[in-house]
Design a protein that fits this description.
This protein has about 90 residues and is mainly alpha-helical. The protein has 4 helices and 2 strands, in the order αββααα. The longest helix has 18 residues.
């Protein structure tokens, strides 16, 4: 891990999320990916295919429980509309 990433990880966090500048760094995408990896937010394909179901031992389990609850509420709300599918963006791999 580079010194730049370590410095960013030592910045104040809110809810386990490091807030970067508005993409002004020429290396923003690299920094973003490295930070998300350090936060445990880069998932294998197997995990992604099963989200929001994730093992209880995963450090972000409670976060995915909340996402599952909100997704189920949205699905219940949309039952009265003629949609055939629902795609949930924001899986965690950027």
């Amino acid at each position: 891990m580079t010194d730049e990433i370590i410095a960013l990880l030592n910045r104040p966090q809110k809810d386990n999320v490091v807030h970067l500048d508005n993409g002004q760094s020429p290396y923003f995408s690299d920094l973003y990916h490295q930070l998300r990896e350090a936060e445990g937010r880069i998932y294998s394909d197997d995990i992604l295919l099963n989200l929001p179901d994730i093992t209880k031992s995963h450090k972000l389990y409670s976060e995915w429980q909340q996402r599952e609850t909100s997704l189920n509420l949205l699905k219940t709300y949309l039952e009265d509309y003629p949609y055939n599918s629902l795609l949930d963006f924001g899986c965690g791999n950027g």
